Amino acid sequence: MDVSKATLVICITVFVVIVINAAIYSAFRRKDGTGAIDLFRKAASQARNPWENEDTQLQELSKKIEEIRRIEDQERNRN
What we know:
By secondary structure, the chain is an all-alpha fold. It has three helices and no strands.
């Protein structure tokens, strides 16, 4: 990799980092202090259980499938 490509990669990386930081800063400026605290709480909760929503949906699906199987088994036993 020559120097010009390396410089370009470094500049793009620095630009992306600055844009991300500016977005975070502007998000905090728009909200009051409790908004930032809630954001951190949601992030911490998501970090502890990143697939919580998916797990809940899978549990619901499992219950529905079990109910369908139970109904099918009852219908088979009648016949």
